[in-house]
DNA sequence: TTGAAAGCGCTAACAA
DNA sequence: TTGTTAGCGCTTTCAA
């Protein structure tokens, strides 16, 4: 019978309640509650006695009861397209850690890359009455935005500087990225620019600014190819092949992800194309392998963990009704120049 | 005042309760509850009337009240070391999706690679009264295991075939991986084996079996280098350099992750070492870029999403008190042979 | 097929 | 500093 708890385990039972602790300690339930939530208001002797009772009974508070009574769930919901291979992972990881430090738990919802199921997801989230919702790289249907807003739950959007945020926003301007990358490439003497991106809204916004800026700088109109998200190395290889077949004179490529860029690098080598001499390649994301590639990959770096930490700060402040210095935080980005351009 | 909800938004309010819906529909609260949870027991006409009232009021159930009364939270907690760069991501992603399909939400806890804070994490998790807990790649302190068990909450461990599972287990044998990889390499004529791994328990278990099997096959004792988790490409480069400096005759390397293996590949190329002629390289994880590398990387493939789906199946079955066919599920692994060996 | 009463475990509000 | 009362929103149980 290896699964029977050994007798050394205290009589911990999931059904131990505040009342049980109270009667063991010889105080009222309210006093136990105060020891847990505001020990300063209770005499040291009582606190000690109650703490002992808690330990001996193995009491663990019931968050559902707490949430029901106090209307505070200490739960934050995060919505992102998918967990798998996501550029948002560092953000979500940092968010989880920063929230845990503040006594909040994270609930994860994957919206997928389509709007299907989003409605159900939103209902599920609202039904938990989280103290806040962090949206990451998610574009909502109007209906979804409306329901989220109507719920009255504080919302922080991240990874995007939209013109009309729902409430608080922590991100950067994808337009600025597109513009600066095209300036950077043209500044390096490139004239036939191209972009390979995912078919998501953020990538499209970078493209629009990229193309517009290139034209303003007097070089020929760039060309673009879009692949279905999430973007992979294989996409990069295939798309470079197709792109060069049609536009052999392209001399610079902006890839929507470092994975795509790695694919481009590999395909270029396979075709005997010299990077950066014949072709400049710049990625997006600065994954941990990018600096180590040969040639080392020039890329756009976003401080994902910082976004997560700021989002945690903002959403907790909003949840507690504290004032926020700014409603829109631009974390910016950096073009990390390496060997591939 | 752009933040004031537009008047077209229905009077959705987070404070709409079952009672409100009931009075709008002209029925009792209990009837509304039944329409939501067991519509078959209610007449079609009443169902329609209640559904209308729900829509017009914008009612969203309160999970905390539901959980408190019914002792069912429809919440599953997942514990993993870290979200960032984790080999478990596909598993967690699939788990989240599979649970959502069954009406369950996922709560994420990061235990870190140390035991610090694990105790607090466990308390936080138990206090939510999740219907189940999925443990992924986490080795617990005895105290932690005891408290988890004492909580009475169903537990599924994943990614590991430990000799004494807490309850249900979905994983594979790290010993078998180590053994098979050494057999594979020796079968290819290699004799001076080496391993580069993370300093986690699973990696160490693979190493022990790898070394033992190699000796049994009559080749010299393999050498190993361990780096702090999570493993990166940079670790791979550095460690290969150090390893070859000391053991220049090594002719095969088993890396604990494909990221490490990529680093080894890059460093080998930088040093003018021919892979696979002079050095065979095998990774672990089969990341999406591994097949595209040059040379394409031989690696050990684990079906991460399958583990997540099976874990979802098991934990939900346990939560509902349904019988389970097996308590230990071995998903196995595959050595995917490519160009690097 | 529907309703009424009770209470899940906790804390806000008030009282002592 | 501590206790009492009431009730958060829902579902279990019993009754009709």
UniProtKB/TrEMBL annotation, chains A, B:
For this protein, what is any one GO molecular function term? transcription cis-regulatory region binding
SUPFAM superfamilies in the cross-refs: lambda repressor-like DNA-binding domains, Periplasmic binding protein-like I
Matches recorded under Pfam families: LacI (PF00356), Peripla_BP_3 (PF13377)
Question: Which terms are listed as keywords in the entry?
Answer: DNA-binding, Transcription, Transcription regulation
Keyword Transcription in record: yes
SMART domains tied to this protein: HTH_LACI
CDD domains named in the record: HTH_LacI (cd01392), PBP1_GntR (cd01575)
Where in this chain does the record put each HTH lacI-type domain? 16-70
InterPro entries from the xrefs? HTH_LacI, LacI/GalR-like_sensor, Lambda_DNA-bd_dom_sf, Peripla_BP_I
Q: What is this protein called?
A: LacI family DNA-binding transcriptional regulator
**Species the sequence originates in:** Cupriavidus pauculus
